[in-house]
Specification:
Elements (H helix, E strand, L loop, with lengths): L1 H45 L1 H10 L2 H12 L4 E8 L6 E6 L6 E11 L3 E12 L1 H49 L24 H41 L1
Helix pairs in contact: 1-4, 2-3
Length: about 240
């Protein structure tokens, strides 16, 4: 019974952990997507004007330096500047172009001189692989931390159940199994401290009920024995009268 209780506690706890952790991971995933969108908007506001000027002047070294700075942003894995000012299209790329699970954003590069001049475009690729890795690590952390909390709690409940209830139930079972006509005068007693409450608890009521049943059985047997003895006397007296 104690093991079943512990198994039920562990099962329910793990189910709650999985549901709660799943909700938390989903919320973290949505927040990570919002963070990526915020970083992409930040690129549009802070990096695109400088990249437009470098692409207009076609300073490849400066472009590569700026693109490496973009790669320092979290989850940004690949950036390309494509200059289309002349008939010849020139590209400058940095990062890993083989990454999967991408969010791609393109920005027009417009150089603001006397008039706006379209220079080309900037392509930024953000990968969700880092998001998935962080969420996996977080899920493992949540699972391990909760398991380390649930397992000791289950062991404590098992020990308390064994000490407070299970051993007394075994004592009751052994007493009732060994009960016979010769041991009816021996009452059932549990080795436990008396209840602090004024009213007896469930174990006290169980012991009281078994002892009352024992007394009723013993009294019934004595009544039957007395009746049988009286019947034998009547039978002997009737035989004497008939003889």
């Amino acid at each position: 019974l104690a093991l079943r209780l512990v198994a039920a506690i562990i099962g329910c706890s793990l189910l709650c952990i999985v549901l709660g952790g799943g909700i938390q991971i989903w919320l973290e995933y949505r927040q990570s997507l919002r963070d990526i969108e915020a970083r992409l908007d930040f690129i549009w506001q802070c990096y695109v004007p400088a990249l437009s000027a470098s692409a207009y002047q076609w300073d490849e070294e400066q472009l590569r330096l700026q693109l490496r700075g973009l790669l320092q942003l979290q989850d940004i894995v690949h950036v390309v500047v494509r200059e289309q000012l002349n008939s010849e299209i020139r590209d400058v790329a940095e990062g890993d172009d083989r990454a999967a699970n991408l969010i791609v954003r393109e920005y027009p590069l417009v150089y603001q001189a006397v008039q706006a001049i379209a220079v080309g475009k900037l392509e930024v690729r953000s990968s969700l692989d880092g998001v998935y890795a962080r969420l996996k690590q977080q899920a493992l952390t949540i699972l391990l931390s909760n398991v380390l909390l649930v397992v000791p709690l289950a062991v404590i409940i098992l020990v308390l159940f064994q000490r407070c209830l299970n051993r007394h139930l075994i004592r009751v079972v052994n007493y009732t199994a060994s009960l016979d006509l010769q041991s009816l005068d021996e009452p059932l007693a549990l080795k436990r401290s008396p209840s602090a409450a004024e009213t007896p608890d469930e174990l006290d009521q169980l012991v009281l009920a078994i002892n009352e049943m024992r007394l009723r059985i013993s009294e019934g047997i004595r009544h039957r024995q007395d009746a049988e003895h009286e019947l034998q006397l009547r039978k002997a007296l009737l035989e004497c009268v008939l003889e």
